[in-house]
Structure formats: C-alpha cells, structure tokens
Amino acid sequence: MESKKRLYIGLLAGSLLFILILTGLVWFLVINRDIILSQIILIVLVALAVILFLILGISILAIVIMIIRSKTIPSLENITFLANELLFPLTLFIGKILGIRKEKILSSYIAVNNYLIRAKDAYIPSSKIMILLPHCLQDSDCKIKITNDINNCKNCGKCKIGELKELAIKYNADIRVVTGGTLARKHITDTRPEGVVAVACERDLSVGIHDTGLLPVIGVLNCRPNGPCYNTDVNITEVENAIITLSKGGILH
Ligand code: SF4
Question: For ligand 1, what atom is nearest to the CA of residue 162?
Fold first, then answer.
C-alpha cells in the first residue's frame, strides 16, 4: 500500500485502537473500583467528562442567548467556537440518522453563523472586507480569465460578475473569484482581510466558515437554476447587505 493511503488507514486503525483502550480502561476501573487508584482515575475521568459537557452546554446556551438578544457575548465567543468545532460533525451525523437533508442542516448552520456575526459590535472598514465568489458564477461561454483578476471582466451583463465587480468598487472592498477552497484560503492568508463575504453553495460555505475559525465570515448562498456548479446566480442585494452588516454601513476608503 502506498504511503499516502497508509497514513489514513493507519489513523483509522489508530482511532479504533484508542476507543478500544479507553473502553477497556473504563471497564477495568469499574470492575476494580475497590482499588483506591481506580477510584481516583474514575473520579478524574468523570470530572473531565462533566467539565466538557458543561462547557458545551454553556456554549450552546450562549448561542441561544446571543440570538435572542441579537447581541454577542464577547467573553463567550471562544467557547461557542469550540462547541461548533467539536459538535459540528456530530450534528451532521445525528441529522443523517434522523433523515434530515445535509443541505438543510448546513443552511441552518450558515444562518446561525450569519446571525451571530450580525449581532457582533465589530466595525470592519469596507476596504478590509474580502468578497469571495465561486467561479461557477461566471457565464460558461465567457472566455475571459477572471480568476487572476476580476477587472478583466467586461461587464457585458451575461452574468453577475460585472455587477459584483461594481459593488466591490462602490465599497472599496477586495474581490476575488476562486476555483475552490484552497485558492480561497490562499487569498485569505495572503491578504489577511478583517472580514469576508463569501458566496457559494451550502457545502463550500459551511466548510469555509468552519476553516476560517474566528475570522468573521458572512455566507451568501448562491442560486443554482442550472444544477450545481454551472451558471449559478446570486442575489446582489444580499451580497451588499452582507458588506453593510460587516462594515456597519460605513464605506471607508
Ligand atoms: S459579465 Fe464579465 S464574466 Fe460575466 S460573461 Fe460578461 S465579461 Fe464574462
């Protein structure tokens, strides 16, 4: 087996072994709980589980309170981020068991994220905002290369790229067209924006929001009248509202 595949298979086997050892350890401690050391380790394990449960519980409660108050609680932002990190794969798994469509869960995740970003008091100069667009917004017959520089677009009106370019000029925001998450991450790493307005489908947006950590990202879902990844569309007003939300209405040059 080549080393590329060996790594993943090795990690899978390692994870299974870890669960097996942990289960074996708990079982051993439980059946030998008359030994003092077993009792101490059991208490430590239970205490750690309770602390983790409390942290996750508090962070979910914090998210609900932030939504109700329409205001974030800055001191709790880090643990809400932690809860999202830890519980995100689990929510998808539970959703799958309950037969809820993945897109529906991801769309809800994006809506909660957007709401929490709106509730923040942060004011980001519009010149520090990056607008990230998927390549599939470009008309498929257009041969102009816009991933290197969106200014190559002639604004012919066949797709929304031209209007989005004008929007970026209006707000003096940075705007990039990307072919995938890798290029999006590269632009963010190179340019270090203070906020991002990202247009994409549910999957790409949720992964992107997840990957960018604490960087405020407002996700705008694209429309797919021709199926996924082909001649997609977006509501310009929604993109503009996202810029206004991040910059609190201010156009700063
Ligand atoms: S608006 Fe720009 S990107 Fe879209 S088809 Fe016209 S020239 Fe090409």
Answer: 1
Buried/exposed code over 160-171 (b: 16+ C-beta within 10 A; e: otherwise):
bbbbbbebbeeb
Between CA 124 and CA 251 the distance in angstroms is 10
Question: 43 and 130, same structural domain?
Answer: no
Q: Are residues 90 and 132 in the same domain?
A: no
Neighbours of 58 (CB within 10 A): 14
For ligand 1, atom 2, name the residue with the nearest CA.
Answer: 153
Q: Which one of 146, 147, 163, 175 would you pick to mutate in the ligand 1 pocket, going by the greatest count of ligand atoms within 8 A of its CB?
A: 146
Which has the closest alpha carbon to 109: 83, 131, 78? 83
* Contact indicator for 58, 80 with CB cutoff of 8 Å: no
Whether the full predicted model's pTM is greater than 0.85, yes or no, is no
Give the position, in ligand 1's atom list, of the atom nearest the Cα of 141: 5
Lowest pLDDT segment from 34-43, 68-77, 152-161, 190-199: 68-77
Q: Is residue 112 part of a domain?
A: no
pLDDT tier, 249 (very low <50, low <70, confident <90, very high otherwise): low
Rounded Cα gap, residues 91 and 89, in angstroms: 6
Please write the tens of the pLDDT for every residue from 168-200. Answer: 999 999 999 999 889 999 999 999 999 999 999
Rounded distance from Cα 237 to ligand 1 centre (Å): 19
Ligand 1 contact, 144 CB (< 6 A): yes
Residue 223 located in a structural domain: yes
Q: How many CA atoms lie within 13 A of 101 on its CB side?
A: 6
The dihedral of CA 59, 121, 212, 131: what is its sign? positive
Predicted confidence at residue 37, as pLDDT, reads: 86
